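Batch manifest, entry 17 of 40.
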Amino acid sequence: MGRRQLWRKVNFIPPITYFKPAGIPMAILNEVKLLVEEAEAVRLKDLEGLEQEECAQKMNISRTTFSRILDSARQKIADALLNGKAIRIEGGNFEMAVRRFRCISGHEWEVPFETMISAPPDLCPKCDTPSIMPLLPPGMGWGRGGWRKRHRRGRGW
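Output type: structure tokens
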């Protein structure tokens, strides 16, 4: 039995999560699924220009794991570009770097990633009500194709 996977810390969810080659009808289009953490790896390394060690620290993973995620992302992007496939960004094993919550009374607060993975909140810090819910970042939630973030096993929302 291998060790459990660490949550990958993601700071950015792209507002556009589907890219399609022009001139190819959707009915005959193949697509490549790029995981959210793969998109984050490409953003950090190729767009931000950070070193792999720094990227890995930002995502809360080892450098070798970061390298595997980046290689997978680049392979999928190359496949889509060179073989005329669509790219859908969704799913994966990630948690937002900062999660915002709201209680039934309307209080809102943020919980950092490190706290979320060890002890998610059970009560509102202002009124102690247990009726709390996470606020999803823009672009997350229900849409075409269903839920766009991997459901977390063993933890309630």
